[in-house]
Amino acid sequence: MPSLQKSLSSAWRALFGDPVRAFGVVSVSLLIAMAIAPAKDYFSEWRGYQRGYLSFIHDRGDAVSLRRRFEPGIQQVWLPDLGVVDRCTTCHEGLREASLTDVSTQPFSRHPVIPHSLTAFGCVICHGGQGAATTVAEAHYSTRAGEMPILPARYIEAGCGQCHQNTLPGTPQLNQGRQILARYGCVHCHSIKLPDGTAMTASDDPPALLHIADKTTREWLVSWLKDPQAYAASATMPNYKLSDADARDISAYLMSSSTPQAGDTTAAIVKPAAEADASAGPTLYGESFCASCHAVQNAAGNLVGGDLGPELTRIGNKIKPEWLFAWLQNPRVYDPSTLMPHYRFTPQQAATLVDYLEKKSDADFGANVHLDLATPEQIARGKKLVVELGCAACHEINGVRKPENFAPDLSTIGSKPLAQLVFLPGMEHTLPNYIAAKIQQPRAFGPSFKMPQFTLTPSQNDALTTALLALTERSHTIPANLRVAAVQETAYQPAGHAGKLMTDLACLSCHRINGHGSEMAPDLTWEGSSVQRQWLDDFLKNPNTLRPALIRRMPRFNLSDSDSKELTDYMMVVYQSPSIDPDAAPGDINTPATVEHGRQLFYSKYACQSCHIADTKTDKGYIGPTLTQVGSRLTPAWIYAWLNNPQALRPGTIEPNQNLSDEDARALTAFLVTLKGSGRQEAKR
Amino acid sequence: MMRSIVMSVALALMVAAAGCKFHHATPTVPRASASGTAIVESSGGKQVGITGMVLKDPLVVQVNDDKGTAVAGALVEFHGPSGFRFEPTALLTDSSGQATTAVTLGTVAGRYQLSAVTPGKSQPVTVQIVETALGYQQQLGFLLAEKYCDSCHDPESSPERVSNYDNLQVKPHPFTEGDTLNKMSDADLMAITQHGGPALNRSALMPSYGDTLSPADVRALISYMRMVSDPPYQPAGTVYARK
Questions:
Q1: Which of A3, A135, A538, A630 has a 20 to 30 Å separation from A24 between CA atoms?
Q2: Which chain B residues are closer than 8 Å to A6 by Cβ?
């Protein structure tokens, strides 16, 4: 101790013992102190990057022009309207340099080509992060005081989704995520208020359970509740991880609360015709194009078929034959809003299909479920569970009301402060990680969490995370003129008796009319202008295929003559384009010379045979519809208008607009109207 | 004296703690129980994905010994350019000698070479794998190609989309056919897409899309073609005078 004291006092004497020396020491230390600030500035991170950029471009061929555009010092994009102060370009110097496209060294590469100008929007609007910061750690990763780090690249489309509420062609992941939000019924429990003030709506229609006992057995219900995906791999119903007792009690309540459906839903089943052989079922299933909407798992485990209706792999385990028989005869008795068309099956045909479908069952499924008669205590406990788990948020259930605000609101989940989140041990503390993990394994966050387990692939999980990350505070506060609203789907009901018929046949489940309905089948908005009356009437009665390569096709509904006439009349009158007069064919097209000229144009100048078949002997084009009988299918006025501008009549159609001269369009029309074809007769024979 | 020792120890601890804050725990490298002499790609190479996203199929490599039989329990490590992520980065081969990893692409579009390394008996052996990352513009081109072009230009058929390739008298060039497409300039590709085959004295079976697709759409298509062409497309680049 004394030695330390001694050395300290000798050091003091050495520095400050003499007043002149003391003055010198104080001046030097003051000078050093004053140099700290400029030195810090000189050695700051961003200057390092700017020096790095200069030496990076030094040896390039375009160094001179790059250096001319290089601006030293802190760069800033300031957009007061958007609340943007972005200094990212201070280090990301090459963002706007077209010649640095091939550079992958960050932070010097060029920004990928996007439809927005960097100076009009800045960076953080899309990427997140702290624009005003000038160090990498603060700009990219800061989480202090509720700050958001930059969006990981795999979720970058969330940035687009803040302003673009509509479906953008360049953001497939975001679009898929939004579809999942709607299709998996997330918004039945969670409410999501969109920036335009509307609430997000679900696109699924979970079945009402009011008459469930008519449809299925309690044994099936127990197996289904325990693991929906064991019954159908594509089921969207999540797994609630129920215990045996829970599933038993819930099924007891649902069955006991079920009331018999008024009307003939469990009609006495007709025996299939005795002479019907084993192939009658599959043939009718195929002819009715059930697979356009319903999928079945094949031997390899792949789903084959559409996803509009439920998967039918183990339908025999689920559905009571009597119910299925009545359903096939007219599905709208049991469920007025079903997407399933009302096929006009004869009782014999329905019985054949029931017979075929009931064989689609799996002996192992639900084999270990043995239930005793439900006790009143079990039923009461079942009701309590139904209320607790929020079953009625999706399904209509007798005796239980739909809960309001059952789960947390997700309107601004993309800006949720990290301080409000509880992370799992070992998890990186970021919001995207939290959301992705919560979707993937909701129950891992605690046994008391009610959110069920959904079955999503990793890419679906990423897509859903992207869609949720797009729901930010900023999406609600950006100026309204920057917001691109979603196209609101409104209800559409074709009028009159024909309209009822169209609802009954569920035309809009596949077709699109005036911006309503599905996009699986052709748009019928201008169908009346497009086709000839006789053809439409024949087609409705007996649809033959126009596009040989398609696997999803128009089914045959076995329409009566009067129904078919009524539909034809309605479509011919109502679905008329104001720009086409069906009776006014382009004049002067009937001369043989014009027709021959049209044929030449068809085969040589425009080579339409690459996609279409006009003559089955020579042409092989497999993309567009077959044209062998287009002259008896389409009106000349439509053909002419279509050739002039296909996209004007059906936006988004892939037939290219060839910008034809009027003379060429007339000649081609002349040739096409002569193709009356024997196709129909051949098909009939 | 005691006090200063305590102080300095505390200071040292604080410095160490601050240092550790940024030190992420590196995943422990598993212990290999065997080693092979060759490594080959089984599947998952030559995929086309989107920047920053996980490739659709996992990358699978196989470790063999000198007789060509698969080796189980050999260590495989995956390496890629910065921004690429592997889950897991290092693992042991399974009973069939294969190591599977999920690849997350980097954030800059391009064609990238990844490598899988196994220590081997005497020296490490490596296999190179090529993956392509599409940026925004190329992805747009990819989606446009899917809608407008692939039904003729892609010879592969699927149940959902039957290829029209075989039906055409003059065969179109698949977009991966670098030998042909790399020789065509951007302007030529622009012309043939906008004005059809005859614009370059080629078949009229290629229709004109200039009134259907916008110039930006066509540019996106071209940038997609350039990215997927095999052999890779080397842009001529702008020629500047040397200083």
A1: A3
A2: none
